[in-house]
Each structure stands twice: as structure tokens, then as C-alpha cells.
Design a protein that fits this description.
Elements (H helix, E strand, L loop, with lengths): L10 H4 L2 E4 L15 H14 L3 E4 L3 E2 L11 E5 L6 H13 L3 E6 L9 H6 L13 E2 L20 E4 L4 E4 L14 H16 L4 E4 L41 H13 L5 E4 L5 H4 L12 E2 L3 H4 L4 H14 L7 E3 L8 H5 L1 H13 L3 E5 L19 H5 L42 H6 L4 H14 L1 H5 L1 E8 L2 E8 L2 E8 L5 E4 L6 E7 L8 E3 L1 E4 L4 E6 L6
Parallel strand pairs: 1-2, 1-13, 2-5, 5-9, 9-10, 10-11, 12-13
Antiparallel strand pairs: 3-4, 6-8, 7-8, 14-15, 15-16, 16-21, 17-20, 18-19, 18-21
Helix pairs in contact: 2-3, 5-6, 11-14
This protein binds 1-deoxynojirimycin.
Amino acid sequence: MKLERQTDARWWQRGVIYQIYPRSFHDMNGDGVGDLAGVIHRLPYLAELGVDAIWLSPVFRSPMADFGYDISDYKTIDPLFGTLEDCDRLVEAAHAQGLKVILDLVPNHTSDQHPWFTESRAGRANPKRDWYIWRDGAPDGGAPNNWLSDFGGSAWQYDPASDQYYYHAFLASQPDLNWRNPEVRAAIYDVMRFWLARGIDGFRVDVIWHLIKDDQFRDNPVNPAFGAGSPPHNAVIPLYTADRPEVHEVIAEMRSVIDEFAGRLLIGEIYLPIEKLVAYYGRDLSGVHLPFNFALLSAPWEAGSLAKLIADYEAALPTGGWPNWVLGNHDRPRIAGRIGPRQARLGAMLLLTLRGTPTIYYGDEIGLQQVAIPLERLHDPVATSVPDHALGRDGCRTPMQWDGSAYAGFSAVEPWLPLSDDWRERNAAEQKHDQRSIYWLYRRLIELRRSNQVLLQGSYRTILARGDLLLFIREYSGHRLLVALNLGNDPASLNFEEGTLRGRLVLSSSLDREDEDVDGRLDLRDAEGVIISLSQDAEV
Ligand code: NOJ
């Protein structure tokens, strides 16, 4: 079913976003770490996969304490990744191949090596002192209050030279900027304009819900649900350190900067419950275009739970707010590790058939596994700072597996993180040869989505969520697609009343049932999902 081409939706509503973790995508200069030249080299792969935009995790100058999320110069590319010219070349080459480029903006904090911070810590009278969040210690001499760092311990770092503390939501080497200071805002908006003027298509904004902190510095409430196994910072509820009402005013300003340039996109990284998340569309949609919806990252892989979270999300969206879905990222365990390689195929089908913009994490399209990293090769500061290493993120950041040659075609030398053990069989080149691979499933799903107005714009309705079965309908302009997912590992059959289920199977997750007629009965193999184009007269 191909309907007339949609004209009013914007590119980021029609498109599929693909997240690249540049350190791990492709290494061209032979230092074991991916780089911009490597991304350029692999653009044809992405164009062929069919995605519309790439988002690069940070590539700016950085001491790499948090692998680029600690920036010491917002307007320079770190030499590890290349040069500004490489970045310009990347944008040009991507555009030539029909791909948009989204950069990562990290405005909440800088590196402690950023000149702004060097000045700020130079003394209480320094003009940049108020660019960061400095406080006197508590009367007893300890930290100013009980705020905790997401990466463990107090969020306050003592500076003996000035006898004050500065606030850091993450590492002590990532001091938080003071977003109540108009000069800070102007400086970051200047950074945004610098990149937008170079032709990039938008930003994903790091921890956008953290930007503003309580101006009275009140203690966060103790978390009664905190228990064994919880990350240490969950000991308190971040009531006064994140999701403050004033943050929306700042985001609306960022949005105005974006809107100075035609057709650009603003995405917010926000981990909040759905009812709070949707506030980030902003009053009258003056906020981010897409507040990243991370509900699938931790959802139990179970029909009832999935149906509920989809329904809750759909119901919470503001009028005109465009939905989006994320299945993996550089901070969370890989989907194939979480639900297993067979169910990962259904994850792909769900991601690409739900209503809204999907974001694919690099490597998920080949079913890349969560990799167990030996202790001596751990890099992530979260892994090395938390005693049992359980929260470490290295396992989802391992090199892309391109082919069966040495180091999986990622690099000519030993990569910075180990490859997954299965790289000889699980790689893009092998999967391209196998028309039933997960790679081909992604490709076919993206292709179907791209040309199908029902998937692009249709409404969403769950029709069954029971046991292992999740069935939903997308509908647009009288055309309907039924998506049926068997989330279990046993075959399942469904008998529909006469006349209710009639149509043609357009895609199955096993990629071998296309064009089957469906009439009354639906047979699903174990861990199989299908998309059925319903006949006009089917009364489902
Ligand atoms: C969120 C990023 O996704 C994560 O990788 C990083 O460590 C923190 N923000 C701090 O910047």
C-alpha cells in the first residue's frame, strides 16, 4: 500500500535517526578509536540501510574523562576524532547522500579543563566566578547540602584555594554551568549558532532536564525506596537538582536559537516519567521538538507492560506533540543483551512500526550483543567508580562489527574496547549476504516505513495485549496495518471471528512469509512478528 507522499510532515517526523558513538564506529587513522573520517567512510552503509539522520555523540575537544561529555572547547573537534575541516566534510558528504547530521550539545557542564572553569576557579572575584555554581560549605564545614552526583558521592567538590565548593552533577571534572547567569546562556547560544551556521541539522541536548537547580539550594528528600542494588545517587530524590520549573524558559530560548535556522531539530535527553517528560514539548510546543522517550529502554518485555506504556505515552502527548521511540543508546545495556537475539528482531519491528520518530543505536541493526568487558579493559568512569562495576556502560559501546577481517574491519589495530566474541559471524558484511538476517529486517522495515503513510502518520490502537501477544493497528485515511508480535518462545495461533481478519502479510520478522494471504486465522511462530495489510472490509 503506497499512498500519496506526505507533504506537510517535517523531515524529522518522517525520518529514522541513527545514533553513532564515534569512538566505536570506524577507525580510519589506525589508533584503535573511531573518528570522523571513519564516519564519512561508512556513510554509504547508512544511506543503504535507509536511515535519514545521524546523531553523533560528542566529538569536541575533551580530556575524555567521560568520553567527550566533558568538553574543554565547544568549537573545536578533538584531534582524536579529526579536525573542523573533517566535520565540514562529514556534513557535506552526509547531505550529498541525503542524510542529516545532528550533533550532541552538552550545555549542563563543561570539563574542568575548559578555560571558563579555569577562570572561574581562579578566585572569588573572577568575572567568570558566577558562570559555575559555587557555594560556601555548611556551618559544620561539610558540603553545602546533600546533593549527590549521578556518578557517586557528594555533588560538591571542595576548592581549598577559595575555600568554597562547586557543584557537579556528574564527575568532579565536569563542573555544572550556572544557567541562571545570562552570560552563560549567551555563550552556549553562540556555540549553537556556530554549528548551525556550519550547516548541521540539529542538536541532541545532553541532560537538558538538569540545566536549572534550586536557587535556594534546598536538601533533596531522602528516597524511601532506596535499597540494595540501587545506584548510590538514588539515595535521594532529585527534587531540587533537576526538572525545575524554570528550565522550560531556558529551553524555549534554545528553541528560538534553533528556529533562527530553517528546518533544524532540537532533541532533549530526558529521563523522567512520561507525565513529566511530555512537559518538555513546552507551552504551545515552544520546547524541544522531540523529548527523547526512553520508556522502551527498561520496559519488561511483556505484552501487557508494553501495551500500557504505549497507551500511557499516547495519552500523555500534548496536541501537536510528535512522538518518538528509542530502543538503545550508549548509556544502557544493548537490547539484544536484554531480551535476547531472537526477541531483538521483534524489538526492531516494534520500534519501526510505532507512531513517531524511531532512533536506532549503531550496531543494533546487526543484533550487536552487550559485551562483558574484562576488569582491566574497563574505561567508563561509572564502571570504575562504582564498586561492583554493575553500572558500567562500556559493554554497550564496543566497536561496530563490519566484516570478518581482523578487528572486524573496525580498525587496523586492537580497538579501545574489545569486540563481541561472535564478531566473525555477526558482522555487517555477513548479514548483507544473508537475506534473513536482522540487518535485512531493519532494512526492510525502514524501507516499508519510508514509503507507507500508515506507518508514517497513522493512528495507533492496541487490539490485544495478552500473555505473549501484542497486536496493534495503525490506520491512516482508511488504510490499516495490523502488527502482531509474539513475544514468547512458543508458537501461537489466533482465531478471529469470520470476516474480522482478512488481508495480506507484508513483512514477517523471519523475512520468509511475504505475500501470504491471511483469512480468519493468524499463526505466529515462536518469537515472530508480522505486519498485515488489512483488507478494506476486515472488521478487526
Ligand atoms: C548523559 C550522557 O548520555 C552520558 O553518557 C553522560 O555520561 C552524562 N550525560 C553526563 O554528561
